[in-house]
Amino acid sequence: MPGLRRLAATATLLLLCPLAAMAADARTQLKAFVAEIKTATGSFTQSTTGPQGNPQRPQSGTFAFQRPGKFKWAVSQPYEQLVVSDGQQVYQYDPDLAQVTVRKVDQAIGTSPAAILFGSGELEQAFEVSALPARDGMEWLRAKPRNADAGFAQVDIGMRGNLPARVELLDAFGQTTRVELSNIQANPALPAGEFGFTPPAGVDVVKM
To answer: Which keywords does the record carry (predicted)?
Structure first.
């Protein structure tokens, strides 16, 4: 699923409360993150590189989530785009196209990286999980979707200090999307309407 426009819609990032064992493997840290962190906010930067090594223009923005299945992924640079899930439906708003795409949550994030980071289910139900060698100061795991129609081949997640710090996704077209996560705040109180979305007047609404 290349670029933030796809990754975010399925999308796709986040945090974990501090634990005592800093050397815990990535799977242990990720499971604790899913179990202990119910809401979070943070920032991201994202870059996508094609199979020939051609990089796309990097993107940046902010995110928030509330388990299970509610999240907001807001791209601010180099263009604006918003992906919001209210727990029932996922809205992807592109101001440049004046278009909102609407999907059911299970269609949009059921077996996507977003299911790992924003969901509440068992990781092994939807993914084959394996450990990877530590690198770049992070502990790593690889998750391969059991569903052949997931739209991506694998996603590697790097954990540092019990926080998801980097996500690297390889899609079916050989493109690699890297998302760096930062400024993560664990379990903040979020406004009641944080994950609500009403399409602006005059935009096209496409239901998938």
So the answer is: Chaperone, Lipoprotein, Periplasm, Protein transport, Signal, Transport
pLDDT at 9 over 60: no
What are the boundaries of each domain within the chain? 26-207
Question: Which pLDDT tens digit goes with each residue over 162-203?
Answer: 789 999 999 888 899 999 999 999 999 999 899 999 999 999
CATH 3.40.50.150: does it fit domain 26-207?
Answer: no
Q: What is the pLDDT of residues 96-138, one digit of tens each?
A: 999 999 998 876 665 567 777 777 666 777 788 899 999 999 9
Identify the bridge partners of residue 178 per DSSP, sorted by sequence position: 47, 168
CA distance 199 to 42: 24
The answer, yes or no, to whether residue 4 has pLDDT greater than 70, is no
CB atoms within 10 A of CB 205: 11
Q: Is the peptide bond before 199 cis (omega within 30 degrees of 0)?
A: no
Q: Which residues in 30-54 are b (16+ Cβ under 10 Å) and which e? A: bebbbeebebbbbebebbbeeeeee
